[in-house]
Predict the structure.
Amino acid sequence: MTGKVCIVTGGTSGIGKAASLALAQMGATTVVVGRNRDKGIAALREIKEKSGNDSVFLMPCDLSSQSLVRQLAKDLLDRFDRIDVLLNNAGIFTMKRTVTPDGIESTFAVNHLAPFLLTRLLLDRLNASAPARIVNTSSVAHKGAKINFDDIQGEKHYSGIRAYGQSKLANILFTYELARRLQGTGVTANCYHPGVIRTELGQDNPWIYRLILAIIRPFFKAPEEGADAAVYLASSSEVQGQTGKYFVGRRPVNSSKISYDETVAKRLWELSEDLVHLQ
Ligand SMILES: NC(=O)c1ccc[n+]([C@@H]2O[C@H](COP(=O)([O-])OP(=O)(O)OC[C@H]3O[C@@H](n4cnc5c(N)ncnc54)[C@H](OP(=O)(O)O)[C@@H]3O)[C@@H](O)[C@H]2O)c1
């Protein structure tokens, strides 16, 4: 991976941090995007120390704000003349409905709209760097979910579990639609479920939720195991040219039936364009 530039959103903790470290250890120039600057600085120091790679950079950005996503894309384009890998990994799970500075429900904004917007803004540079790879972190939680176009932001009724499942289904619909639109460009788009992983996901939920999590947490896998599929999809020659697939671990598997519905994917794409003000 030496000479390649990899961007990892949510690279300051959990799966993203483990993936950033692995990519840095492979020699890649690694750009860590995270919301919390202090946490980012600590992660950066750790990744540099453990990998012995000095080409690791921190780009703090709160992805819940579309103007900050646009600023991040501009900074990345100004700073890096190539982008070989974009790992859209940052995500949240919140039981309480909150809205972003743009007035959009946070789960939908951070988990789906932010990667949608960032990818679109970086696409020309990814194309110019082809062969390049886009990897999206989804989840098995997409199973049983649907895109509720009548109430996509949970304004009438919000459930954290439903919002999370919907956002992870959106990740897959976006990946497949992107792969269709990128056919022949040399840029691939795949997504994956990392497993059930011991991370900070959902840690700011109410105490009862955290208590349950604390009890079952020891049975979860380590972040490195969760990152394995991401790093594989980002770097392995075994998946060179493969696109439009959903992986669990290193194996391509079927995602839910609705995730293959091209009408739903197109509708979601157009709605997302409207919400992030893209043509
Ligand atoms: N853990 C699991 O079992 C599991 C299973 C399936 C899928 N996933 C998916 O894996 C991905 C990574 O989650 P994780 O489990 O590693 O959780 P995590 O430890 O909480 O990491 C989440 C990362 O996303 C970043 N992030 C969250 N909101 C952000 C925002 N508004 N702007 C910028 N960065 C933001 C966090 O940055 P800060 O720390 O700076 O806030 C952090 O680096 C998520 O997409 C999640 O849905 C996780």
Summary: The mean pLDDT is 97. Residues 10, 12-16, 34-36, 39, 61-64, 89-92, 110, 137, 139, 193-194, 196-197, 199-201 surround NAP (CB under 6 Å). The beta strands are 5-9, 29-34, 56-60, 85-88, 132-137, 187-193, 245-248, 251-253. Residues 106-128 form the longest helix (23 residues).
